[in-house]
Amino acid sequence: MAPFGARRRILDDDHPMTAETISMSRPPAARRPLFRRRSALPGFGLTLGVTLTILSLIVLIPLSAIAIKASSLSPAQFVAAAFSERAIAAYRLSFGAAFVAAVINGVFGVLTTWALVRYDFPGKSVVNALVDLPFALPTAVAGIALATLYSPNGWVGQYLTPLGIKAAYNPVGVTIALTFIGLPFVVRTLEPVMRDLSADVEEAAASLGAGRIDTILRVILPALGPAWLTGFALAFARGVGEYGSVIFIAGNMPYKSEIAPLLIIIQLEQFEYANAAAIALVMLGVSFLMLLIINAVQAWSRRFS
Amino acid sequence: MTISIRSVEKKFGRYPALNQVDLEIADGELVALLGPSGSGKTTLLRTIAGLEFPDEGQVLFENEDVTFASAAARRVGFVFQQYALFKHMTVAKNIAFGLDVRKGKDKPNKAEIARRVDELLKLVELDGLGKRYPSQLSGGQRQRVALSRALAVQPSVLLLDEPFGALDATVRKSLRKELRRVHDATGVTTIFVTHDQEEALELADRVAILNAGRIEQIGTPDEVHDHPATPFVCGFVGEANRFEGVVSGQRFTAGPVVLAAPNAPDGEAVAFVRPHDLVLDAAGFPARVERVVIQGPLANIDASLPDGRRIDISVARDEAVQFTGEIRLSARRTHVFGV
Q1: Does the structure's ipTM exceed the value 0.95?
Q2: pLDDT tens across A249-269, in order?
Q3: Under CATH, which number does the domain A86-302 receive?
Q4: A203–B97 CB contact, under 8 Å
Q5: Cβ contact, residue pair A304, B89, below 8 Å
Q6: DSSP states of A191-255 as a string?
């Protein structure tokens, strides 16, 4: 049998011997690593090993425990628990509000980043720190504060009520809370990319006759696309899983303003562990699918780099 | 398009980048702005482009004052050192950009744009690469794309900021020829910035040499090389041995070095002698050969003077054999400037 590699050598029709001669005169190759290319960078084994261990302990095993727990239900029981009317309303709210919040953050995150990266203004470092606050603040504190502000007689809510807008204890409130916690994801993802956009490119657009709007729409925003999608995905994923800040402002009425994570808690409190796992499994599946789709879109939007 | 720069001044903070700069550029000319970094050459180019605006003075295109007109209004084509291509657009889209952003009846239809793009791709010898993204091209190819993108809008003037600075030596040489060819084919007035004197002398019709925000000399490559107007030009353009000494009675003396200095006024002076202007002469000043380096058809000789200073001599390779041990030299031509 020919040694591995010989088959891949392209045989020249005119000189069928050449390839053979070369392969014959080769000294025997040194042992080749089994599944990776030789690299000068040390630490591959160690880092990959640690990564896999941590991922298994922290992510994979707990997640598979959900699947195992849920599998203790019969298919009929599973469907009854995971796709009850109440559960479906909760999924719709969780994913829908997270999506809307991520879109809002996608728009305002770009503007915030633009202001932070491109201009110098008094108090810039304060604004910069404020953006990170949702990362650091205990989510329950944020939830209580938002609920107080936006409740019908709160500071902001009292002005919204006469306009017929109810901004707390309903899906709008949920969206407000998710917008709050999602903002830094978009800003911090976009920031380095926007900083790296060279002034050259904008000047080139200007010298070619593009106005400011054209330059922004055709040159700057498309260049931010992949980073924007990453920020959007992070904000969205965070929103889907958010619990602490939402429950204070949501009102938590079944079928109306009850988020899926809360429904899981409720099931747990009733010792319906398998039912909780079933709902969790659906969320897990949907989240994974959506992140996968976003990643695919991202890969497509990076086709030029 | 003729371009006039009149008494242009520009300060960045307290640092003067351009200091009373005057420059006239004729229609269809290819002019190089040559100078060391910080000499103001890029600022001058950007002022012509409308990417910087002067504090004082005027910029005129064809006798029309455009000092404060935007880059877009001036219809300049600008090529950046780092290409500045739109990474998310294909090569064809990049080239078409200037036409695509036009509004209303100025905007050519799709077929016309496509035809123009093809034409430009052919001009810079990139046919067939229209569907690639800039990241799939080599540096030289990217700069060709940048060049054709700038040419697509049929600019009144083509401005290039160190266009070959980021490329390796062989690509640089071929692109230089390419730029000359494109310039001759389109006839567009072209100004480029460089710190590479070889590039400036080889490519340009006229060279403007800048130093510390001023134009030291402007002239044809031969003029600036053979008849430098200032000590700076003499030292910057071409190789030169520099001596500080005294002129008295049409003779320049610096230690052991004695050079003929016809028409130079008496007093302290600096003298420059090009390495290829030094010749063997029994009546000349003494020197000792330290090292001979053959570079293609030339021999570069490293010699020392009795006072320890080094001088460079450059001769045809065949003559190198005569340069051994103690020699005596004189200069065929000397540039002497009073100080």
Answers
A1: no
A2: 888 888 888 999 999 999 999
A3: 1.10.3720.10
A4: no
A5: yes
A6: HHHHHHS-HHHHHHHHHTT--HHHIIIIIIHHHHHHHHHHHHHHHHHHHHH--HHHHHHH---TT
